[in-house]
Design brief:
2 copies of one chain form a homodimer.
Chain A: E1 3-4, H1 14-17, H2 30-47, E2 54-57, H3 60-71, E3 77-82, H4 85-96, E4 100-105, H5 114-123, E5 129-133, E6 135-136, E7 141-142, H6 145-150, E8 158-162, H7 174-177, E9 181-185, E10 196-201, H8 203-209, H9 221-225, H10 240-256, H11 258-278, E11 295-299, H12 305-315, E12 317-318, E13 320-321, E14 330-334, H13 341-357, H14 364-376
Parallel strand pairs in A: 1-12, 3-4, 3-5, 5-8, 8-9
Antiparallel strand pairs in A: 2-10, 6-7, 9-10, 11-14, 13-14
Helix pairs in contact in A: 2-10, 3-4, 11-13, 11-14, 12-13, 13-14
GO molecular function, one term (chains A, B): alanine-glyoxylate transaminase activity
Organism (chains A, B): Thermanaerovibrio velox DSM 12556
InterPro entries (chains A, B): Aminotrans_V_dom, PyrdxlP-dep_Trfase, PyrdxlP-dep_Trfase_major, PyrdxlP-dep_Trfase_small, SP_NH2Trfase/AEP_transaminase
Chain lengths: ~375, ~375
């Protein structure tokens, strides 16, 4: 058994993987138009939005670049509230577009809360945008984006969301929540290989984009929007085979019923968290309702993080360590994808064995029973 | 039979295609490092350069964006000499970075010549960069880039080259020729699916890049250069499976012997051109030594371009029409990839039949005999 449990790229489901070998088609013709049209339609269903999220060639980082490049003009005051590594990267990306940044740092492992946002709005009333991270992959925090967005006045700053590691694996409903811009990516909750970014803008954001000169031609979303007709086209060559793979990933989620899919991911997360705690380990994120349904960050006993990771690697399971200051004290296990009870057993049993081999005793039976109780809740 | 003969994406060879279904690997680990290291090494061999071309997620347009974004600061005077659609796009991309453009337009179908460049250098002595297109896909012109670069003084403007549709299918030797920056892409002469751009900088260009603030985080080549060590890493998630496919495409070229590969592509081009002329058709590019080894643009009898294209499509062969003002008077046939005599017969015989069905008579035997003579030269 060999399984990628790192926070992206993820283990790509077979039906998605196999499309990577598709016979190539021209991107100027009815076959691609039909693929692209399906992709736009299914993505719109997934995000419950009227205008489709736009796929662009690139990584999640590229999608964040496109989001900022289309909505931030040099000198714009931008509030960045960050609780981890990816919040800081979002900030760096905005600063490249000339944003005048107002920074609020929340300790790693904690979440962005409404009071942080209200303080920021009071301190910087003329901000033009707020940068938020949905699922902070470096710590396994799920930020309460719906509540956060709900606390910003309708005529307030644009709310820009990094949903790179949330989209697909958990609800991300920008139109319903009142978000203005979203960046996502193919290789995490959408279960495709890396190489496609997604960018969605609200009507208000599209009108802001008209005023902004995007410094990059290939990331100018206005060029994309022109051709989103019945027979949609891209302004330049798209990564055709990756689009086909991404479409399949989205279809897997939609055909399972997206609400049920999201509930299942959250259930797996709760089961793993409970099992980990039953084995006497601590989770980085204290508050249960701020734990990511897609990724769990587990504190390791002193100096054991690397040993546990390499022991798991020896069994075939590849997990991530911490990032930044947490590099040597965490392991992070991603579970964005099509997992169920067998994978939960695999993770718990293997983690238990790795700890056991390193002299850390725990009751694996109790851990599995705890997990099973949660997995049996429907 | 069904075959893509459009100027990219191309028909992907089977051995390249199949790697698109590879089992996903983490981009932080020895497996990816080894793949990436091989890719950098083989690309360096192909371009005969000391420092490797850098693969980035994106299209050829994205690679051009990265080239300009890393080397052009707002206000820099930049000379753009264009002979087609893609020369104009390169110009537009540079203008997004704030270039102050000095424009020279050469009629479509003609090539950029040393005298154009010398005039430009005299008129704009303080230019910081010159934009050149290697293979102008809209017209099938191959510009004499080695001669052009040789005519620019060593301390003159940086020479930036759009090699998006040349790399792989014809010699592109930037270090030997004295080019400073090159943008290329995966989906044409390198025979992989679209989604990877390549950017190469000379030592002089790297030192210029130090002074430029790249407006895009994901396209900042300095972030890439940091980790090009023995176990190279990318600054953010790369399109892993596309890198594996691109590596295979490059390996096919190198294992055939790149000089021999290039000679074969050029021979196919000459054979097709001669056959087309033997059928009484005109080529857009008058000068034989300015015709692209990768793509042939054929003038169609009045009002027949669309008919011929759709007739070829009916036989399974997908070719392109003209671009811009040439939209309805040309067909363009790409032959960047692993073709030989059978494909030449297929193209000539099918084109002859399409014309014949539309009432245009030609001697197909003579066309094939003419082509055969050229294909037999070794």
């Amino acid at each position: 058994m060999r399984m990628l449990l790192t926070p992206g790229p993820v283990e790509v489901p077979f039906d998605v993987s196999i499309r990577g070998s598709m016979r190539m088609i021209s991107h100027r013709g009815p076959e691609f138009s039909s693929l692209y049209s399906d992709l736009l339609h299914q993505l719109s269903r997934l995000f419950e939005v009227e205008e489709p999220p736009i796929p662009i060639p690139g990584s999640g980082t590229g999608a964040l670049d496109a989001l900022c490049g289309n909505l931030i003009s040099p000198g714009d005051r931008v509030i960045s509230i960050s609780c981890g590594f990816f919040g800081e990267r979002f900030r760096e990306i905005a600063s490249r577009c000339g944003a005048s940044l107002e920074i609020i740092d929340v300790p790693w492992g904690e979440s962005l809360e409404v009071h942080h946002l209200l303080e920021a709005l009071e301190r910087f009333p003329n901000a033009r945008a707020i940068l938020l991270t949905h699922n902070e992959t470096s710590t396994g925090v799920l930020n309460p984006v719906e509540d956060l967005a709900g606390s910003v006045p309708k005529d307030g700053p644009l709310i820009l969301l990094d949903a790179v590691s949330s989209a697909g694996a958990m609800p991300c409903l920008p139109e319903r929540w009142g978000i203005d811009g979203v960046a996502a990516s193919s290789q995490k909750g959408l279960m495709a290989p890396p190489g496609v970014g997604l960018v969605w803008l609200s009507k208000r954001a599209w009108s802001r984009a008209q005023e902004v000169r995007c410094p990059s031609y290939s990331m100018d979303l206005k060029l994309y929007k022109k051709n989103l007709t019945d027979a949609p086209e891209t302004p330049y060559t798209p990564p055709v085979s990756l689009y086909a793979q991404l479409l399949k990933g989205v279809e897997i989620i939609l055909s399972s019923g997206k609400e049920e899919w999201w509930k299942s991911r959250a259930r797996i997360s709760r089961a793993l968290c409970a099992a980990v705690e039953a084995m006497g380990l601590d989770l980085l994120v204290k508050s249960p309702n701020r734990r990511s349904p897609g990724l769990t960050a587990i504190k390791m006993p002193p100096n054991l993080a690397n040993g546990v990771r390499s022991s798991l690697k020896g069994m075939g399971l590849q997990v991530a360590g911490g990032q930044g200051g947490l590099k040597d004290s965490l392991i992070r296990i991603a579970h964005y994808t099509d997992m169920d009870w067998p994978e939960v057993c695999m993770i718990i049993g293997s983690l238990w064995r790795a700890l056991n081999d390193l002299g850390v005793r725990a009751d694996v039976g109790c851990a599995l029973e705890t997990a099973n109780k949660i997995m049996s809740e429907r």
